[in-house]
Amino acid sequence: MVVLAKAELEQIALPASQPLMADVRAVDLSAAPGPDRAAAARALVAACEEQGFFRVTGHGMPQELVRAVEAAAAGFFALPQAEKEGGAGEPVGYGCKQIGDGGDLGWIEYLLLCLTSAGTVPAASFPFSTLPCAAAAAAASLSEPSSPLRELLEEYAAAVRRVACGVLDLMAEGLGIEPADAISRLVADSESDNMLRVNHYPPAPAQAGRLLTGFGEHTDPQIISVLRSNGTTGLEIAGRDGAWASVPPDADSFFINLGDALQVLTNGRFRSVKHRVVVSSERSRVSMIFLGGPPPGARLAPLPQLLGDGGDSRYREFTWKEYKSSSHRGRLVDDRLRPFEN
Asked: Of 39, 82, 115, 159, which is most buried with the most CB atoms under 10 A?
């Protein structure tokens, strides 16, 4: 349940609008080695250069797992508020309306799982946790029996991480980068800072001539985000001209969003795309987002193969821990990469 005071509702109100539908490119991850895979790699690179956002088919995710996770998440968010807050340490952490430490609000409640190769880690054990229920999450022990929801989310996260790595391997092929796992290994490492967010946007109260912000405009700081929702509209992406476009629902594909870290690795050839979620008063939206980040100590800088003849780097070298710490101090809308530009 999301409850905001009148002043908070004013803060997240948006003018009612009817944005155009986004034309989202599709990339087939199941293309056979040879000409078909080479064509898919070229299509992926083109989508990254043009929009920084695309959808993948042929991803191999078991549909029964996806349906089970969506049903379990919907069941959790339907619980009484006291039960959701009291159970924060079991899935890992529950948050409501507050997004980060910069004062951003949204018509949203969510679960957040911090992932390592060993499974899920309590969110508050990470140095940059921003969960309102962090204290409750910190009290949870990994030795405690997992809840059915936690087990499902862990299984889903492991499967979707394979999808993310498959996308990044195909990307490396399209860019002509060797080794083929030059990017994906940053997400597949045993210390990689991966997260799974499960966002719930309940139907919003009617606002005359206005909509509500579910999640304010931002770019993702990680390397890659893999997203799917329950077939409800609300996600919008910003074009290069700044105009918002609505992403049409797709029950079979996964949407890929490029993050700030990938923008750095490609020296700005690929750009992270601004996106937001706008809430209507008609239907709940549940989305699951895998956020693939590098290990905290990983040093990020443009890949040498992508520097070009001049060898000029647009960004100074920095660690993921340094960047994540910096990004969490600001507002969602901030240009977080600016302090790291040369």
From this structure: 115
